[in-house]
Amino acid sequence: MLILCTDGLTRCVEDDTLRVVLEQDISAQQMCEQLLAAALDADGGDDITIIIGRMGIRTWTGLRPEPHPTACGVPFAPRRRRGARRSAPW
């Protein structure tokens, strides 16, 4: 599994919460949704982007390839207030 995310997630969600969600036997989409909900519950006012890619499934004999590797992402950007200045794209 590969997770790419912005600091909007890592600043708001504790490592233990990340570990619990990522160890569940659920789809990558559900993981993204749970992590986004956790960040928003922790008042994640920053931009939050989460991308999870799964290339294999853990079994008692080890790692076997998924028949169809999956990836999903959940972008979230808070609404800008009127008159708020745009930040630089970098």
Any overview of this molecule?
- This protein is α+β, with helices and mostly antiparallel strands and 90 residues long.
- It has one domain (2-76).
- 29% of the residues lie in helices and 34% in strands.
- The chain contains three helices and three strands; from the N terminus they run E-H-H-H-E-E.
- The chain has helices spanning 7-10, 15-22, 28-41, and strands at residues 2-5, 48-59, 62-76.
- The chain has a three-stranded antiparallel sheet.
- Helix 2 (15-22) runs antiparallel to helix 3.
- The longest helix has 14 residues, at 28-41.
- The radius of gyration is 15 Å and the shape is globular.
The end-to-end distance, rounded to whole angstroms, is 27 Å
Strand percentage lies at: 25-35%
The amount of helix comes to: 25-40%
Strand order in space, largest sheet? 1-2-3
- Number of helical elements: 3
- The count of strands amounts to 3
Taking all residues together, what is the mean pLDDT?
A: 75
Counted up, domains total 1
The SS-based structural class is alpha+beta
> What summary fits the major beta sheet?
3 strands, antiparallel
Q: List the uncertain runs.
A: none
Shape: globular
N-to-C SSE string, H for helix and E for strand: EHHHEE
What is the gyration radius calculated from CA atoms? 15 Å
Keywords:
90 residues, 3 helices, globular, 34% strand
Please give the structural blueprint:
Elements lengths: L1 E4 L1 H4 L4 H8 L5 H14 L6 E12 L2 E15 L14
Antiparallel strand pairs: 1-2, 2-3
